[in-house]
Amino acid sequence: MTGRWKSVSLPPAVMLYLCFCLFLAFAVVSGIKQPPRLRFGKDGQLKILQVADMHYGNGKSTGCLDVLPTQLPTCSDLNTTAFVERMIRAERPDFIVFTGDNIYGFDVADPVKSMNAAFAPAIASGIPWAAVLGNHDQESSLSREGVMKYIAGMKNTLARVNPPEVHVIDGFGNYNLEVGGVQGSTFENKSVLNLYFLDSGDYSTVPSIPGYGWIKPSQQFWFQRTSAKLRKSYMSSPAAQKGPAPGLAYFHIPLPEFASFDASNFTGVRQEGISSASVNSGFFTTLVEAGDVKAAFIGHDHLNDFCGRLTGIQLCYAGGFGYHAYGKAGWSRRARVVVASLEKQQSGEWGAVKSIKTWKRLDDGKLTGIDGQVLWSKTPGGARRKKQFGGR
């Protein structure tokens, strides 16, 4: 034995195979996995369930707020869980979005346990889901970053803490998801619908500015770059398009522009003030300039559930969902459903997004559907009221 290694020359194909095996082994050991991609179904539709303001506490021991006296003795967080389960069974969504105040930190004994319970119906369903933070999620023993990191590590979630390519960005939970066209179609490798998620903050950290947080310039810059990149890709071969794919934005705290409506120009109800930040950070202008976002969906003000169109963008509340959250006795908790539909091409295959419609369902005996409307249509005159609810 000389103690020296003898060099061995392997064919390139063998070396490539060995490298691939090493990568797979590393991925298994380190837990790396590619998240499933959202995609339109073979029926040419994508259905999204929005759940706003669950305010989940400690489960069965956490009582309800603002319910009828007859409901009070038996009402708890379990009613919120049951409502999520009912909505999943009734609507069979392809994707679920939780838009903040998922747990109510002040009343939570263990934030991890509460998050596990709050998101349990989505996880049990096997349906991909995502979440953003509100202003109450971090008010327990976990920091805002800690809460978002835990959510991003949960089963079946597509949520991310922040975009990996951005080193400095405000908040936690800024990310985008691309929705591919129907598998086997010309659009299967294109994102025909873009989903943007942003952290709208909790409370102002500027002493001279009171009130709630807002979407900061760093987040807006990331959104602008992401939107431009997606536009370029969508308008390039194969199947190059003439304009950007439509987009939807999800965050928690309303923009000041949500106060632009009255009963004559929105669908739904406005029963309380618009609790936006006391400053206007200009994010609505950023959305308008980008030109791709057709609707923004929020929570925060539980007694508002309207959609109003301003400068080509629908601004939509979901209405309060959770039972350990303020509401209005006799006014049912509710959830918003959004369906994007593709157009059929002359070849018979599915193409780009043709329309985006929405409705709400109430947590009553029949899960009553209300306020159906077309939010956006590729053809002029598409934003009309609709009466049908559900279906695929």
From TrEMBL:
Belongs to the metallophosphoesterase superfamily. Purple acid phosphatase family. Its main location: secreted. It comes from Linum trigynum. The lineage of its organism: Eukaryota, Viridiplantae, Streptophyta, Embryophyta, Tracheophyta. GO terms for molecular function: hydrolase activity, acting on ester bonds; metal ion binding. Its cofactor is Zn(2+). InterPro entries: Calcineurin-like_PHP, Metallo-depent_PP-like, PAP14/16/28/29. Residues 1-31 form the signal peptide. Homodimer. Pfam families: Metallophos (PF00149). Keywords: Glycoprotein, Iron, Metal-binding, Secreted, Signal, Zinc. Residues 46-302 form the Calcineurin-like phosphoesterase domain. This is Calcineurin-like phosphoesterase domain-containing protein. It is found in: Secreted. GO terms for cellular component: cytoplasm; extracellular region.
